[in-house]
Amino acid sequence: SPVIVWFRRDLRLSDQAALVEAAAKGPVVPVYVLDDETAKHRAMGGASRWWLHHSLESLGAGLEEKGSRLILRRGRCEDVLPALAKEVGASEVHALRHYEPWWRNAEKAVGKALTLHLHHGNYLAPPGSVTTGAGQPYKIFTPFWRALHERLPPPDPLYRPHTIAAPESWPESEALDDWGLLPTRPDWAGGLRDFWTPGEEGAKARLKTFAEKASRYEGQRNLPARNGTSFLSPHLHFGEISPAQVWHATSSAGGSVATFLSEIGWRDYAQNVILQYPDYGGTSAREGFDDFPWRSGGQAQEDLEAWQQGRTGYPIVDAGMRELWHTGWMHNRVRMITASFLIKHLLIDWREGEKWFWDTLVDADYASNAVNWQWNAGSGVDSNMFVRIMAPLSQSEKFDAAGYIRQWVPELADLPAGEIHDPSPMARPKGYPQRLIEHRAGRERALGAWEQFKGE
Ligand code: FAD
């Protein structure tokens, strides 16, 4: 009888342990279930849905080349999969294991109804398996990475199956175009289309380009005007490429590739954190921090919107927020600057920023997003201190963001180098806003709120 392969954030044919195992057993029915009910308020945001549409198209085409198909269904996985299994006479489901709390619940429910085989493959080491000598999970990145590093390299990637046998008859599939994953009007996805090629081939192309410069990562990674990072994050998030493939393609590059590999380690670390704290995306790990004296409503709401739209009057912040809106991605250094600005200068709850990123990033990832927001807020298990407040102007100068600002804030493009990071009120072109708050005033307000929080 056929075996079902349940695809989720593992939309690839190579190094896909569930597919390899299933294909070795007999006919395969590959399925993707669009399940917003199980994820509830964590259903994918707009940019992710755009990506998903194209990635499913690519996966479907790849399966067809192998004589197979991708069956699309909508509904709760725990209902859809048993129904599909009955329809095709399948007794087993194979899938890669996922760690978002809603996926863990769904795996439990599906496992009660069917024989579910869960495989490892989306992380360098199975999350939860890297522990201290006493068998405890790590809370802090550095010792986690040290312990994980000892277990590396990851196993060699698995080849894509030579053939994937088809079942005697194919079950019905819904039509991808009926799922409404793409924006209709306004069509905000033009920048995404220009910038990205979702799917396994697009992922491999990015990896190949990056592998050639991986040795120079350290010197380039913090400069937003250079394309010094890999741009692999959405491909890794959707599992179009595995971290083992990335590791084996880059680790011998020499130079500063070790720094790059430790960033892949942060990705594993984030999963390790949500396994310990499933609510990490919505609850601060630091006791009482969700009752911090945040600003909200009225002027704060307007400030939040100005931040979202890239109208804060701080060029580096505005450049980042516009890059995000336009491409669905933002440079890591600028993610830190914009996050710090929202939380500290505007004194707005980090969870508002997390939500915006969730909706607009093509790499929106429950664990990585939460871990990084809590790191910047100073509320996480391993994090920066709240009182370390990034100065947008000096960050912009230090990381040489002039070219980046010129690209994303075109109304400032003609300003001379001396003015571009922090144009004086007189130099601001018409239409470019004044600062929402002066740096010094913002800093003092944040430190005051911190004192108040500590005193409570
Ligand atoms: P590279 O520098 O080439 O790094 C290679 C890979 O390592 C990335 O693709 C990513 O998978 C992983 N990685 C790198 N840095 C981190 C990190 N700090 N934490 C976890 N993994 C990392 N990354 C996401 O994938 N999804 C998110 O939702 C996300 N939200 C973020 C929110 C904030 C406020 C901040 C400061 C960072 C966030 N990051 C997130 C981390 C990081 O910014 C992106 O992974 C990185 O910019 C992606 O670009 P790249 O693929 O070129 O990265």
UniProtKB/TrEMBL annotation:
Keyword entries, A-Z: Chromophore, FAD, Flavoprotein
InterPro entries: Crypto/Photolyase_FAD-like_sf (IPR036134), Crypto/Photolyase_N_sf (IPR036155), Cryptochr/Photolyase_FAD-bd (IPR005101), Cryptochrome/DNA_photolyase_1 (IPR002081), DNA_photolyase_1_CS_C (IPR018394), DNA_photolyase_N (IPR006050), Rossmann-like_a/b/a_fold (IPR014729)
Record flagged with keyword Flavoprotein: yes
Pfam name, any one: DNA_photolyase
Gene3D superfamilies: 1.25.40.80, DNA Cyclobutane Dipyrimidine Photolyase, subunit A, domain 3 (1.10.579.10), HUPs (3.40.50.620)
Domain Photolyase/cryptochrome alpha/beta: 1-124
Cofactor: FAD; (6R)-5,10-methylene-5,6,7,8-tetrahydrofolate
UniProt family annotation: Belongs to the DNA photolyase family.
Protein name: Deoxyribodipyrimidine photo-lyase
Taxonomic source organism: Novosphingobium decolorationis
